[in-house]
Amino acid sequence: MRKVYILAGLLFLASCSHAEVATVNTEVVGTPETIVEQTVEVETEAEVETPAEEINDEVAALETAVEDLSKTATLDAAYTNPKGPVDMKVAYSLDSEWKIATIGVSATTYDGLGDFNTAIQILVGSTLEDAAEYKSGSSLTGYAFTQAVKSELN
């Protein structure tokens, strides 16, 4: 009988531990002199992450990445032309396929960027690598633009 009390005490202490273990299908086999207990331990739901939860976590991470891509990034493409310094900024956003969704240039110190801004609209749907190779003749604006995009890639 003393063994039964010891066994009951051990079971009580085991149930007080921090690990959540469920005991299933416990049966006592044998005579009082040779008591053997068979126990099956099962991990609780809190300890097991199901594949569905893993997939949901991955989907959430991808959605966050797509949201980050859709935000507009701004590059500094300042240069100096014969009329003086130009503080050109290149603003662009990427779509979910890493292609340019929107692009534009602006400057507060120079008003002559309208034609260049119109010309670079052909880059919509292209990659940043394609934009870094954009050729616009001998324009200082085009050179400053491609240098800013190249610096973004590095």
Structural descriptors:
2 domains, 3-stranded antiparallel β-sheet, two-stranded antiparallel ribbon, 38% helix
What does this structure look like?
The protein is an alpha+beta fold and 154 residues long. It folds into 2 domains: 46 residues, no CATH class; 82 residues, Sufe protein. Chain: A (Alpha-Beta Complex). It contains 5 helices and 7 strands; from the N terminus they run αββαβββββααα. Strands 3-6-7 form a 3-stranded antiparallel beta sheet. Strands 1-2 form a two-stranded antiparallel sheet. A hairpin with a 2-residue loop joins strand 4 and strand 5. The protein is elongated, with a radius of gyration of 34 Å.
Give a brief rundown of this model:
The protein has 154 residues and is of the alpha+beta class.
